[in-house]
Specification:
This protein is an all-alpha fold. The protein is built from 8 helices and no strands. Keywords: Coiled coil, Signal.
């Protein structure tokens, strides 16, 4: 009996050892299989995709949300709904961004076209204003030259006028001096000739003779010439008182011839003086008319010059305003173009980011739907629980 008990105890001990060893082997085998399975799951392409997804902020948040659901043994349907809602929101934002881009792009195009048109118009305005200003400056130079030339001609004519008037005054003074002397001579003859006729009448009445001593007459004339420079009348009276009555007749004839000659000379002088005065007046009138004409033309040119200067100033202002408009349009174009480029760049960046986020969501949805074990393994391996 004791032997049987002992045998039974031995068998039990051996059986326990066997069972314990088998249990250990089962655990080791299970751990091996589990490790092998994890290794197989980590080699799955979906696992690598999850690693890429985790590197993105949105992907990391999604995986953390999934980990919370798995840790609570909750259904992933809420996660799927969240992902669908998030994807729909991103797609809606992208549609809104596309519509906004189309509107802003259209506005940018209009604005840039408007600036381009303003630049083109201002350039044309500058060219036109500068071309007209150049022509007007040329006209101003011509007017100034004409005005200076007319002013010079007026001075020349004025100088001629002054010179002719001086000459006319001097000629008139010389004429007055000459005619005064000749008239005094005539007056002397008019005084002495009646007396000589009286002497001759007396001599003829007494038949004093008919011969005339030529030398006596010549001497009398010489004395008359000498004394006559101071006072012709006194000289004639003095001369007459020294003559013989018989020489008076010849003297009378000589004096009358001289008197008549002097009268003719006076008349010729007066006619010449009158003609000279008329000729001078004609020339002075022509000079006056020329000065008047030049003065009117000069005034007209000066008025035209001022009008041309005003027009030139208008063109200069047009040019300055056009330059200001050109600079404003150019700067506005640059600023607007930069704004549009910055907006387009931001749109492209946002679009790329949304596309990436949507792609992440789709990848997660696909992995959850097809390879949940890979998701669970990834969460465990990365301690996301």
């Amino acid at each position: 009996m004791k032997s049987l008990v002992a045998i039974t105890l031995v068998l039990c001990l051996l059986s326990n050892q066997v069972l314990s060893k088998k249990h250990n082997q089962d655990e080791e085998h299970s751990a091996f299989e589990k490790s092998h399975k994890k290794l197989a799951l980590s080699d799955d392409p979906a696992y690598g995709k999850l690693e890429e997804i985790q590197d993105h902020p949105l992907g990391s948040k999604i995986l953390q949300t999934i980990a919370l659901q798995l840790r609570g043994n909750e259904s992933l349907s809420a996660v799927s709904k969240l992902l669908n809602d998030l994807k729909g929101d991103l797609e809606g934002k992208q549609i809104d961004a596309d519509n906004e881009r189309a509107q802003i792009g259209s506005q940018c195009k209009k604005d840039l076209q408007n600036y381009s048109q303003r630049i083109s118009l201002s350039i044309n305005e500058i060219k036109d204003a500068e071309f007209k200003a150049k022509r007007l400056n040329e006209a101003i130079a011509v007017y100034q030259a004409e005005i200076n030339e007319k002013a010079r001609q007026i001075k020349v004519f004025q100088a001629k006028d002054d010179t002719l008037r001086d000459i006319r005054r001097q000629d008139n003074l010389d004429f007055s001096t000459r005619t005064t002397q000749m008239k005094e001579m005539v007056q002397a003859f008019e005084v002495i000739l009646p007396k000589l006729h009286q002497v001759w009448d007396v001599a003829a009445a007494h038949k004093a003779g008919s011969f005339i001593e030529e030398e006596a007459i010549n001497e009398a004339l010489v004395q008359l010439a000498k004394i006559g420079e101071e006072n012709p009348i006194t000289a004639m009276v003095a001369l007459t008182s020294t003559l013989e009555p018989t020489a008076v007749q010849t003297l009378i004839e000589k004096m009358e011839a001289i008197r008549d000659s002097i009268k003719e000379s006076i008349q010729a002088e007066e006619e010449a003086e009158a003609k000279n005065a008329r000729d001078t007046d004609t020339i002075l009138a022509a000079i006056f008319n020329a000065i008047e004409s030049l003065t009117r033309e000069k005034a007209s040119d000066e008025e035209a010059l001022q009008e041309t200067i005003r027009n030139r100033d208008i063109q200069d202002k047009r040019s300055r305003d056009a330059h200001a408009e050109f600079n404003a349009a150019k700067n506005g174009n640059q600023q607007r173009n930069q704004q549009c480029q910055e907006y387009e760049l931001q749109y492209q960046q946002n679009t790329i980011e949304r596309d990436k986020q949507i792609a992440i969501i789709r990848d997660v949805q696909n992995i959850i739907a097809t390879k949940i074990e890979v998701v669970t393994c990834f969460v465990e391996e990365n301690n996301l629980f």
